[in-house]
Design brief:
The complex is a heterodimer of chains A (about 375) and B (about 500). By secondary structure, chain A is an alpha/beta fold. Among the domains of chain A are: about 65-250, no CATH class; about 315-365, no CATH class. Helices cover about 50% and strands about 10% of the residues of chain A. In chain A, the strands form two sheets. A six-stranded mixed β-sheet of chain A has the order 1-2-5-6-7-8, sandwiched between helices. In chain A, helix 2 (about 20-30) crosses helix 7 (about 185-205), helix 7 (about 185-205) crosses helix 8 and helix 14 (about 325-330) packs across helix 15 (about 345-365). Chain A is globular and about 75 Å long. The relative contact order of chain A is 0.13. Chain B has two domains: about 5-315, no CATH class; about 345-450, Elongation Factor Tu (Ef-tu), domain 3. Chain B has helices at about 5-15, 70-90, 120-135, 150-165, 175-180, 190, 195-200, 210-215, 230-250, 255-280, 290-305, 320-345, 345-355, 480-485, and strands at about 20, 35-40, 50-55, 60-65, 95-100, 110, 115-120, 170-175, 185, 360-365, 370, 380, 385, 400, 410-415, 420-425, 445-450. A six-stranded antiparallel barrel of chain B has the order 10-13-16-15-14-17. In chain B, strands 4-3-2-7-8 form a five-stranded mixed β-sheet, sandwiched between helices. A two-stranded antiparallel sheet of chain B has the order 1-9. In chain B, a hairpin with an 8-residue loop joins strand 5 and strand 6. In chain B, helix 3 runs antiparallel to helix 4, helix 9 runs antiparallel to helix 10 (about 255-280) and helix 12 crosses helix 13. Chain B is globular and about 90 Å long. At the A-B interface, helix 5, helix 13, helix 14 and helix 15 of A face helix 1, helix 3, helix 6, helix 9 and helix 13 of B.
Chain lengths: ~375, ~500
């Protein structure tokens, strides 16, 4: 991911690296045990292109209506130096925002280079934390250490400074109706915001400030009811932060994954691509469908080997560690003798099979 | 999810066909349900794009908003939809049953039937709920006046969506939920959310098995999604150009027809699936307690229909007393529904047997005439020993009842290796010898459970004007405002 990682750069072949974005980060916390996703993200591989080449294009098409609406809403909130946003912060949340300065960090002197942008983000935020200058910092480019590697994050958020503290403001175009929004969307937004809060906290610490200067309270700006009017809702992301920090600490180090792989492995389009991808172990669960471009490929692979995980995490949990459907069914009909650690699961399965067959038989009128 | 349903999924995955999770139908199905297949515009909370609706497979009406961003067209759509839905509601209540007068001598009636709405999935229910919310406060006079039917529709849709939350109610159902209640597939619950894939496992088209039918269902070109969200490629490649063409032609009927045809192609396959699913469900025999639950549904419908004119639109948020009462009602309904399903269906009871709350087996010993003579008067207390392999997790002293005839009650005396000794306490008649046929004999297969229906009594809640200060005191009376009536809908 960074310039100091030639071994990872090699994995991409000639393709340019991709930054982490909201989707890869969501996948990161949703499925930290997946080596395949971890490695491909760390190397900045274009998973979308890989999946398409493998014949399993990711089902993440976006409707132009949704894109238009999202962009229009964001533009409206940010118009005239974030005039509407400031009104919201002052009136709805009762924040005392006196002077206003707006800095857009998306492009630095016509250059979109990551290092340059990150340097500018650092410089401005350092000044803000020291002097209290600056209010709104749009499109900051952040860095976060993921699995032993520094990754750039491209958050579509605003860092907002008030009363000496930095808050993350996230603009989303899903509606808040009578103070309620769809729980999955709020949860996803909270998970993403937590990543940005964490990255900002690490940055503050690097700059020699108290990480607590970055607040765990983020502001979610969404359309209100059925209108285009924005409304702001404070969101406490402490639970998500705790999960994220734990997951990041537990992530298998990419170096360790890399060591176990052949030295000439490369995720380049070509006949060997599928084989290269299969060389890295995946841990598929249906939740992957929501966040990972490789999900359809991994699902196909999991189904082909009869993995219980393809049926859902709760099933795998119910089966207490039995990995394949064939094994579970053999335990259920008694044709396979369980090892000691599976004795309890096997007993449950056998009881379930007996009760199910008895009930079905009774229902067919053949009461035994 | 229990090991029992997990096992059903495993078997389905290995055979390629859905496995039953129920042996009877646990929901009511009216003769002519109103099937609705709604579509909304992507990225919007509740901007309707289209709905196909009707009460018979060959009687579909397609309503389309040719420019979903146009407020007037949207309300015209809502008015058209209102007329159809309200007409269905008014024509489905059937005859009126006179009931015995209530406690205070008031007249009570119950409609002989009620309207039933069926949508493809939970998204469809959520959409109806939001459509109800966005239309029920509208004013029918003044500068933002809408057709008088629009707020009426909003209130009814809100009511149906609230009934959907009520466990065991059959007034509004999401088809995927209904099918999942009765069958397990060999795919994950995420994929079961796709109606075409789910039905593909249960009733695959000719020449296909479950997995191949489900794979076909995931191709949005062969099988357009069941809504309310449309397929993004359809939006980008077909819908957007068609809407633009309609817009630029200033309402040219040919452009409108092309747009309607495009939308029709997206909803028609789901329409077919819905009716096929209705047929599949109808083939199951109805559970014994389903008519009783439908009677509660008819009561609820009768009450709302009768008091419709006196009430305001449902509040945005329930006031405290109403919220507490509603939660209590939902919990009671859930409890009763779970128990009733188990009593109706041995396959559901098997779940409780596996979890240890029920046990079944053959009667090995029986003492039908035993009397308990320790008290002042002798009592009939037959003893029954039941041989069972089930993992029973009930303590001695627990009161249980017979699954086949819940009136027959007993108390667990002791367990020993593979058997339960039971003392029967009730449900055998009033004399000192049991009524013939009430006490199971040796060799009979029986099942006893600690489940019981209606273990919760109805709680009493204060009146609205007596809302305690801990809950904010009595809430303010609702007065409709212009602001409600003219709320943005963009």
């Amino acid at each position: 991911m960074t310039e100091t990682a030639p071994d990872l750069d090699r994995l991409r072949g000639d393709a340019p690296p991709r930054n982490h974005d909201a989707r890869t980060i969501a996948a990161l916390t949703a499925n930290p045990g997946c080596a395949r996703r971890g490695l491909m993200d760390a190397a900045g591989v274009d998973k979308d292109a890989v999946a398409r080449h493998l014949g399993f294009p990711a089902p993440f098409g976006q409707s132009q209506f949704a894109i238009t609406r999202g962009n229009a809403f964001e533009a409206q909130v940010k118009a005239d130096g974030c005039a509407e946003l400031l009104t919201l912060l002052r009136e709805r949340l009762g924040l005392d925002v006196a002077e206003v300065a707006y800095d857009d960090l998306e492009v630095v002197a016509g250059n979109e280079g990551r290092e340059l942008r990150h340097t500018r983000t650092r410089r401005l935020l350092a000044r803000a934390l020291e002097t209290g200058e600056g209010t709104l910092f749009d499109h900051p480019l952040l860095r976060l250490e993921i699995a032993g590697r520094l990754a750039y994050l491209e958050p579509d958020v605003i860092a907002f400074q008030v009363r000496g503290r930095l808050h993350v403001i996230e603009i989303k175009s899903f509606a808040v109706v009578d103070g309620q929004a769809e729980p999955e969307q709020v949860a996803a937004a909270a998970r993403q915001s937590a990543v940005y809060v964490l990255a900002l906290r690490r940055l503050a610490a690097e700059l020699g400030h108290d990480p607590g200067r970055v607040s765990h309270e983020v502001f979610l700006v969404c359309p209100e009811n059925f209108s285009n009017r924005p409304t702001a809702t404070p969101l406490d992301v402490r639970p998500q932060l705790a999960v994220l920090e734990r997951q990041l600490a537990r992530l298998t180090r990419v170096d360790a994954i890399l060591e176990a792989l052949p030295g000439d492995l490369v995720f380049e389009p070509g006949d060997a691509l599928a084989e290269s991808v299969r060389a890295v172990e995946a841990r598929y669960a249906p939740e992957c469908m929501a966040g990972c471009e490789m999900a359809l490929f991994c699902r196909d692979e999991a189904r082909a080997c009869g993995a219980t995980g393809a049926l859902g995490r709760s099933i795998r949990d119910d089966l207490g560690g039995v990995d394949t459907i064939a094994t579970a069914l053999a335990l259920a009909d008694g044709s396979l003798h369980p090892s000691d650690d599976l004795a309890e699961t096997a007993a449950q399965l056998r009881a379930a099979a007996r009760l199910r067959d008895e009930a079905l038989l009774a229902a067919r009128g053949g009461a035994a | 999810m229990s090991v029992l349903s997990s096992l059903a999924r495993l078997r389905a995955a290995s055979t390629g066909a859905a496995e039953p999770l129920a042996t009877v139908r646990h929901c009511h199905l009216v003769d002519a349900p109103l099937v609705l297949v709604p579509l909304k515009l992507s990225g919007e909370a509740a901007a309707p794009l289209a709905v196909m609706l009707g009460a018979a497979p060959d009687d579909a009406t397609l309503l389309v908003v040719p420019q979903p961003r146009n407020r007037d067209l949207r309300f015209a759509f809502a008015a058209d939809l209102a007329k159809l839905v309200l007409n269905h509601i008014e024509t489905s209540h059937g005859s009126v049953e006179e009931l015995p007068p209530g406690k205070e001598g008031e007249e009570r009636i119950r409609y002989g039937n009620a309207p039933q709405l069926l949508v493809p999935n939970r998204g469809g229910v959520a959409f109806l709920r939001l459509l109800g919310r966005s239309t029920r406060f509208r004013g029918t006079e003044g500068p933002y006046a809408v057709d008088p039917a629009v707020p009426v529709l909003g209130r009814w849709l809100t009511w149906f969506a609230e009934r959907h939350d009520h466990p065991g109610s059959s007034l509004l159902h999401a088809m995927t939920e209904l099918l999942r209640l009765h069958w397990a597939t060999g795919q994950s619950s995420l994929e079961d959310g796709n109606l075409a894939a789910l039905l593909g496992w249960i009733d695959p088209p000719d020449g296909l098995d479950g997995p191949s039918a489900a794979a076909r269902a995931e191709d949005p070109v062969a099988c357009p999604p069941a809504g309310p969200t449309t397929d993004p490629s359809f939006d980008n490649e077909v819908l957007a150009p068609a809407i633009a063409a309609y817009h630029e032609s200033h309402g040219d009927p040919r452009a409108l027809e092309r747009l309607r045809a495009a939308v029709h192609g997206q909803v028609a396959p789901t329409w077919e699936l819905m009716w096929r699913a209705v047929g599949v469900l109808r083939a199951l025999p109805e559970g014994a307690s389903v008519p009783g639950r439908w009677e509660r549904d008819r009561d609820a419908f009768t009450y709302y229909h009768q008091t419709f004119g006196e009430a305001y639109p449902q509040a945005r948020r329930d006031p405290p007393v109403r919220a507490a009462r509603r939660l209590h009602d939902l919990e009671r309904a859930q409890d009763a529904y779970d128990a009733q399903r188990a009593f109706d269906d041995p396959l559901v009871m098997a779940e409780h047997r596996l979890s240890g709350q029920a046990f079944g087996g053959l009667v090995t010993e029986c003492e039908p005439d035993r009397l308990d003579e320790t008290g002042k008067r002798p009592k009939l207390r037959p003893l029954l020993r039941i041989g069972t392999e089930d993992p029973v997790r009930l303590d001695p002293g627990t009161v249980v009842c017979n699954a086949a005839r819940p009136a027959l009650k007993g108390r667990i005396v002791e367990f020993d290796g593979g058997g339960v000794l039971l003392e029967l306490t009730g449900g055998m008649g009033r004399r000192l010898t049991a009524e013939p046929g009430t006490v199971p004999g040796v060799g009979e297969r029986v099942c006893f459970t600690s489940l019981s229906e209606g273990s919760w009594g109805a709680a009493r809640f204060p009146d609205r004007e007596d809302t305690p200060w801990t809950h904010g005191g009595p809430p303010a009376e609702y007065v409709p405002t212009d602001e409600d009536a003219e709320e943005d809908w963009s």
